[in-house]
Amino acid sequence: MMCLIKKSMLMALVAVGIIFAQSTKQWQNLYPAYSGLAFGNSKFVAVSGDGLIRTTGDGAAWSQYFVSDGGNSRKLYAVAYGGGEFVATQSGTSCLRSGDGSGWYSEGMGFNEPVRYLIYGKNSFVGVGDEGTTYLFDEGAWETYDAKQNGNLSHIAYGADGYVIVGGEVEWSPNAKGWGSATGASVSGGVGVVAFGNGKFVALAKNGGTVLTTDSVKHRWESATANEVPPGMTDMVFGGGKFAAVGKAGKGCVSSDGSSWSAATGLNPNDDFTAVKYGNNTFLALGAKGSVYKSADGKTWTKLAGNSAISYKQIAYGGGKFAAVGDSGVSVSSDGKDWERKDNTKGLVGVAFGANRFVAVGDGGTIISSADGNTWTPYEGVSSTEILTSVAFGSGVFVVGGRDGTEQTGTPIIKASTDGLSWTDQSSSITKWGYGKFPISLCFGKGKFINAIKGTNMIKICEAGTVDEAKYWTDITITALPDGYGLISVAYANEKFVAVGAKATGEAVVLNSADGESWQALPENAIVKKVRSATYAKGAYIAVGDSGNVYAYLSSNNSWHLQGKATNRDLYAIYSATSSSKEIVLAAGAKGAILYTESAPTSVKHASAPRVATSSKTGVMCISRTGRTSAVTLSFTPNSAGTIAVYSLSGRQLYKTRLGAGERSASLPERAVSTGSVIVRYSGGGRVVNQRFQFVR
């Protein structure tokens, strides 16, 4: 039996505050975890799992907006365009709406599960989600309906005056309010994607190798073998006379007729592609790890961005290149923006440059090196029981730190090398450090190596200029580190030493030193929590941590400031270097996150706009009020006649008036706004816009 739940729209408009802060002037997210894509109004709008909305005309230049709700980031699932507006879905409780892809506002949906794929058809937004649930935005409210299948729905398409949904099965509906099973559309493993074009629906099997077609929304489907259709397709579109699909592991396919298919080429095999759309005479495809590709024909793809590794732990610069290392290997960049994976060595945690060579270290005693950043060679004389945690270079010597054994009983490890190729193990000379006291982070500055000891307030200093001198370390106790805090990282940049100490509960403190021996704690601030790494750049101390938070300490007001966010993924590394005569700052972390900026930190508070009583503006409509008279005004000039209607939150129509072609404003009687919160709907020229306005008395 069909299940209908009708929900009132609960919008939080600009009267309550815009929920986006444009972050392109600060941190640019180079590789968002893309989850959805739409095209409309001559632009592509992409949404991501790390709370980012990006817009572009050609896929090359992007503007970006970060989603924030009360300081908490929200994952975005899907986006669609229709009726003159973009709609993006978040959790089951809300979606976002925009007339132009830049100014957005939040709208309540009232569901428990998210809408995972969304389209526009027949003057309505329709989406699919988990447990066989479909979603319909109709007459100013969201409704849910049950499909016949109970499994998760993966895709939906509109055409031939009806809708088709796919998942475990194929179902159809003339109005998205009741679903019927399709005849002849059963495929082992289920159906992954569906699209409409050239007068017919085309669907691809989840397991690949099979295509389904029909020329009517409810007539019998035909199944055929299609060997060039790969498994795991996640999105499909019809455009430029062709069907194009993309999916897991960089796979894709294309067809002119929906029956004969060719494999796509050029897509990043290290990324799972989540979205493809057609617009401005081009196909654009996006990946869950930040890949952006474009194609003129849907078959041959050109990379615009991508090839990032996962979970970066540290970055180094030298020889005109940046190298970032992490759980899945090494990525290299010449400018800090365009990165390519160059090595797949697992478990890397540290990297340094010196003697015209990069050296990276990690789990299992791993040491790899490269003279050009492209080809990496492993050092064979290591023990697989060793856990190497850090590496630094200075005074002609590489020094590597780590432990042998568990964190509780592990003995410290120190190795040294002048060329990064042959290494001398000095561990037997430093056993007096004691069990459980081992290097966690290394840096070099002002003629000395600084070695932070895991979970303590102790650092060790070494002025090694030779391999043999790497065995001599002097203890320094950082008395400025509060009780209960343990060191987790240390760095040197722009003549400053910077260290981070943290509690198990997440509180963090950042310390600085001019000489590496005398340390001071920067003022504590309640917002600085779960910080993992810090540096000194752009005239400020900058720290990064969990949930994509970036903090800057500005001496001008002796306080920490949360910077404009560009991701909700955890950040593990912060690094600065001068490249091409400009100081670049990079932050990197989980799931391939890389943030880039050339701008100095700011003390501007990033927060929602305050409530206002006299004017409510966002999207494509605003309401102004003078005394007891209110007026609604459109942000565009309609070229045909339309209507303005006002509804209560319960759905009761309070007022309706005609708006002629060329007219942008209409007066509202007092009774139309007397309830305090209303929904205003404009309909005209094939465009439907709904917005909620709240009058604060």
Short description:
The protein is mainly β and 697 residues long.
Distance between the termini: 45 Å
Number of DSSP E strands: 67
> What is Rg?
29 Å
Just give the CATH class of the domain at 312-597: Mainly Beta
Describe the 3D structure:
It is a single chain. This protein is mostly beta strands and 697 residues long. Among the domains are: 312-597, Methylamine Dehydrogenase, Chain H (7 Propeller); 615-694, Sandwich (Immunoglobulin-like), CATH 2.60.40.3080. It has one helix and 67 strands. The strands form 16 sheets. Strands 1-16-15-14-13 form a five-stranded antiparallel sheet, with no helix packed on it. A hairpin with a 4-residue loop joins strand 10 and strand 11 (94-98).
Give me the secondary-structure topology.
Elements: E1 5-7, E2 10-12, E3 20-22, E4 28-29, E5 34-40, E6 43-48, E7 52-56, E8 62-67, E9 78-82, E10 85-89, E11 94-98, E12 104-108, E13 115-121, E14 124-129, E15 133-138, E16 141-146, E17 155-159, E18 162-166, E19 170-173, E20 180-181, E21 191-197, E22 200-205, E23 209-214, E24 222-226, E25 233-239, E26 242-247, E27 252-255, E28 262-263, E29 273-279, E30 282-287, E31 292-295, E32 302-305, E33 312-318, E34 321-326, E35 329-333, E36 340-343, E37 348-354, E38 357-362, E39 367-370, E40 377-378, E41 386-394, E42 397-404, E43 411-417, E44 424-425, E45 439-445, E46 448-453, E47 458-462, E48 474-477, E49 486-493, E50 496-502, E51 508-513, E52 519-521, E53 531-537, E54 540-545, E55 550-554, E56 559-562, E57 571-579, E58 582-589, E59 594-597, E60 615-618, E61 621-626, E62 629-634, E63 642-647, E64 653-659, E65 665-668, H1 670-673, E66 677-684, E67 687-694
Antiparallel strand pairs: 1-16, 2-12, 3-8, 4-59, 5-6, 6-7, 7-8, 9-10, 10-11, 11-12, 13-14, 14-15, 15-16, 17-18, 18-19, 19-20, 21-22, 22-23, 23-24, 25-26, 26-27, 27-28, 29-30, 30-31, 31-32, 33-34, 34-35, 35-36, 37-38, 38-39, 39-40, 41-42, 42-43, 43-44, 45-46, 46-47, 47-48, 49-50, 50-51, 51-52, ...
